[in-house]
Amino acid sequence: MPDSGLFHEQTITLKGYEKNVLPASARTPQLILTYSDWCMGCVRAAPMWKRLGEEMNPVGISMSTVHAGREPKLARNFGARTDSLPHLVLLMDGRIYQYRDETLSVINIIRFIREKFGTQLIPRVDDSNYEDFLNGWRDNRVRVLITGKAEVLRLRYLALAYQYRRFAAFGYARLIEGETTQIQDRYNIPSTMDSMFVFREEVDTPAAKLSMPDLPFSVMTDVLEANKYLLLPRISSQKILDELCPLDSSRVRRRLCVMLVAEEEDEDAQESLRKYAKVYRGPGKDRVGFVYVSKKGQQAFVQALIEADESMVKNPDRRLVIIWRRNLSSVSFLWIPGTWKRDEESENDGFAEDILPPWNSSQYELTAALKRLFSDDGNLPNETTMKELVDENAAGLLQRIYNRILILLESIKDRIRKEDLLAAVSVIATIVFIMAVAYVMAYLVSLEEETIQAKRSKATSPSSNSCASTASTATLQLKMHELRGETYNGMVRLLKPGCRTIVLLLDKETKAKILPVFHRIVWPYRKNKTLMFGWMYVERGLDWYKQLLSLALPLGEGNPDPQQLESINPRNCIGTILSLNGHRKYFCIYHAKHLEGQQRAAYAEAKNNGLRRRIGRSRGQKKNGEDFLGFEDSSSDSDRSSDVEQGLSSPDDVEPLLVDDSSSFIFVERLLDGLSNWLDRLFEGTTHRYHVNYWPEFGNK
């Protein structure tokens, strides 16, 4: 078990950490070691921890321990694990820094602390930049110049600069011949000792000076505590107001604050009040403070003081107000009449700092008011509820977000061990590799698709000998090809096995009406790569159609002879659908008056209109379907009353196929009513097939 007199004496609990250690880390760095009972590494680290305490305590760095078994939550908060004890962290301003070195030694720990302080906490100063450094007091902080011969800054100086970073800016001048000669001569710096100079607004004369071979940390803190504010500091936050104008409810020992309300750029008025504060020797010298507040920076606070005094102007500039903070919520105050005059407005031409004020009327009013207030009958007539001051030095929203991100990244970096990092890198590399492979595969697939599309675009002509390559172009759209002499071989004769071409017969007058209907009906079949769709002008392909019928219909058995085929009426062939199988040399045929389509069309008509239909074969209908082939008993070819816009045949020759109360004719728009059902039967293989020995020649007229 580790030395109980060492570790157990410094042990803290979770409650003590949250109440004392964590708030104290804003001023003092905290070294915290996590240990446990029967930890051999902790036993070996005990002597080192004792020597480290002897080094850290004199330089203002606190040390404490945490028992991992008794405070597991606190140990986990520090990132400690049972297999990695002892575990050391550094707590600074609420941020936890992990000690990653494998060896716990005094030298390594001091190096670790130096790294966390950073190089910007105490920058280097020489003859070229010391005046700029000393004149930077306008950021409302005093300047502390440390000199010495050592190249490396002592840890106590870093701890001191960290503790007073809100009140003072530190700089280090290494005494080297040729680099800091002007500084040594100007301030008479001894070269054999370390020195510390505290400067306020006056850069020619330091407010405090300390020179010793070894500057004690406690002495340096005492000097800074007495000189940590400027002669005329700016009230830039509520914390500074609480320190410069503390609460005091006792009337006898009350502390007053003389506050100048002016623009931040009005340096003349500030300098005048600064000189007054420097030489003031009046009543209550130790109980009065001189400050100034920016009218723009603290608008709410200034406005509350204005509204509480009806005699006060609404827009004060260079006005003095004396305040007494009686408690947290209220403040008593008195506005000094008139504006505060600058030095050039002084009525005493022979002004000297050793002459007591007043020198002009405004300074006289201030001196008289202070004497009256520190007397027994002095009273502050006005009182108001105090508004909390705005922190003028607070970072903006974007800066706070940026700082939070940096803290998060640094915290992750500190908490991740080498083993965890390797595992995380392995997982990330695996994910990246999988995504890269997926991207390459997707790219190759898209490249192949583009190649196939390019090949298909070259094969869009129906004269191609591959129906699949032609029909596959209809994946995104359905293309219609005209059946004529140039496309006949590609659409019929050279079709591959299993491929078919579905052709609509029409003429120029009916194309605009019937082709869109045909396109809509066959649209669901656009992705079928074995199908090709087209249309044919009856006038252009009538001879081919006659030859096809003569080859398909055998002589006798009631079929028309070749002479009868010559009398086919082209108008009655409109709306005929041919399904051509080029490889197996057969075709199927659809027509509104074909025996295969009569019942289907009738049922479709009855379903659409909700009317009673009379389904039957017409009285003048030819046997074996001669009527659908285009034969007529009358001279309807010359009689325009038999136009398909009125019906497929004259009402005097044949009774219409579909009969209802409104019409006795089949109109062009109704020629394909039964096509959907016929296509279903076509793909089921239940339609009649007409075989031919060869495909006749197609001649264009």
Would you write up a description of this structure?
This is Thioredoxin domain-containing protein. Keywords: Membrane, Transmembrane, Transmembrane helix. InterPro entries: DnaJ_C16_autophagy_reg, Thioredoxin-like_sf, Thioredoxin_domain. The chain contains 23 helices and 19 strands. It has 701 residues and is α/β, with parallel strands linked by helices. The strands form four sheets. A six-stranded mixed β-sheet has the order 14-16-15-17-18-19, sandwiched between helices. Strand 3 and strand 4 form a beta hairpin. It is elongated, with a radius of gyration of 52 Å. It starts with a helix and ends in a 10-residue tail after the last strand. About 12% of the residues have low confidence.
List keywords for this structure.
15% strand; single chain; transmembrane helix; 701 residues; 5-stranded mixed sheet; alpha/beta; elongated; 6-stranded mixed sheet; 23 helices
